[in-house]
Amino acid sequence: MEKEGQVDELIGLVDQIIPEFIDHNEEPEAVDLLLEVERLSKLKDFTNNRNFTRVCLYLLSCAPYAPDTEEMTLTY
């Protein structure tokens, strides 16, 4: 995704894969995929009362590995 060009096909595939992950209780895989393609904001569309706790717990476990805002500013 760092390269310029069409990513619509990739995002289309992600939009098909995420519901499958969620339907099969694979929330961590869904979160990982959305993080990888920088579309974590789409997660709210798939979170419900049944999986909210699992999604939040996984996001909290990922937080220590996320770059700080200062780190992001320095690397760009």
Please characterize this protein's 3D structure.
With 76 residues, this protein is an all-alpha fold. It has one domain (8-75). 58% of the residues lie in helices and 0% in strands. The protein has four helices and no strands. The chain has helices at 8-23, 27-36, 52-62, 69-75. It is flat, with a radius of gyration of 14 Å. The mean pLDDT is 85.
Short descriptors:
4 helices; 76 residues; single chain; mainly alpha
Sequence-ordered SSE layout with sheet pairings:
Layout: H1 8-23, H2 27-36, H3 52-62, H4 69-75
Helix pairs in contact: 1-2
Main beta sheet: strand number and arrangement? none
Proportion of β residues? under 5%
Q: What proportion of the residues is helical, as a percent range?
A: 55-70%
Instruction: Tell me, briefly, the overall form.
Output: flat
Average pLDDT, to the nearest integer?
A: 85
Uncertain residue segments: none
Strand segment tally? 0
Structural class comes to mainly alpha
- What is the domain total for the residues? 1
Number of helices: 4
What's the gyration radius in Å?
A: 14 Å
